[in-house]
Amino acid sequence: MSKKISNTIKTLRFFANEMTQQELAEKAGVTRQTIAAIEKDKYSPSLELAFKIADVFNVPLNEVFSYKEDE
Amino acid sequence: MSKKISNTIKTLRFFANEMTQQELAEKAGVTRQTIAAIEKDKYSPSLELAFKIADVFNVPLNEVFSYKEDE
DNA sequence: TCTTAATGTATAATATTTTTAACATTAAGT
DNA sequence: ACTTAATGTTAAAAATATTATACATTAAGA
């Protein structure tokens, strides 16, 4: 009944030449812990950070984050 | 040189039978002030709220929010 | 086996978003 | 002119995201 945000960051990192969390963090302008927390769904990022992460991978935001019913 | 988030909430409200800020706020589960602040670019919402707002209008997130170079 | 890079995790401090409450202004209808 | 709904706006509190620091674990290579 309720929707949740999920993401494909780990996969995207893997296909981006196995980019590390650290590298992604630097390119997105945040710390490694922030990336780790988001990857593990500890919390959902700000819209701005979501856009920045998508930009790093050169994909639209909806290829990184989706909002769907959680099964 | 820097990117900024902009949104089309006001327009979307207008085309959604002139939905008020108050109605949108209720449907998105936030207060009217939050909608007003976002409409006026006082700050960018959380990713979750961005998704909820898009859901209210039944459009993808990128039809509500965009992240582009500011002129 | 030893090192090292990468990741997992936790906690307290800081920053940002969101709420609550309040009052002002605008536009429309009567 | 009066009323009312909608919006503009502000300030302080509460909630959530992010940082900084620190230490543990894992996997891979020398």
In a nutshell, what does this entry contain?
The structure is a homodimer of 71-residue chains. Helices cover 54% and strands 14% of the residues of chain A.
Written overview of the protein:
By secondary structure, chain A is an alpha+beta fold. Chain A has one domain: lambda repressor-like DNA-binding domains (434 Repressor (Amino-terminal Domain), Orthogonal Bundle), CATH 1.10.260.40. Helices cover 54% and strands 14% of the residues of chain A. Chain A is built from five helices and two strands. A two-stranded antiparallel ribbon of chain A has the order 1-2. The longest helix of chain A is centred in the C-terminal third of the chain and has 11 residues. Chain A is globular. Chain A starts with a strand and ends with a strand. The mean pLDDT of chain A is 95. Chain A binds a DNA duplex (30 and 30 nucleotides) through helix 3.
CATH class category label of chain A: Mainly Alpha
- Uncertain runs of chain A: none
Task: Give the helix tally of chain A.
Answer: 5
CATH superfamily of chain A: lambda repressor-like DNA-binding domains
- Biggest β-sheet of chain A, characterized? 2 strands, antiparallel
Assess the beta-strand content of chain A as a share of residues.
5-15%
SSE run of chain A: EHHHHHE
Helices and strands of chain A: which structural class?
alpha+beta
List how many beta strands of chain A DSSP finds.
2
Considering DSSP H and I runs of 4 or more, what fraction of the residues of chain A is helical?
Answer: 40-55%
Spatial order of the strands forming the largest sheet of chain A:
1-2
Shape of chain A: globular
| Oligomeric form | homodimer
Chains forming the largest contact: A-B, 16 and 16 residues
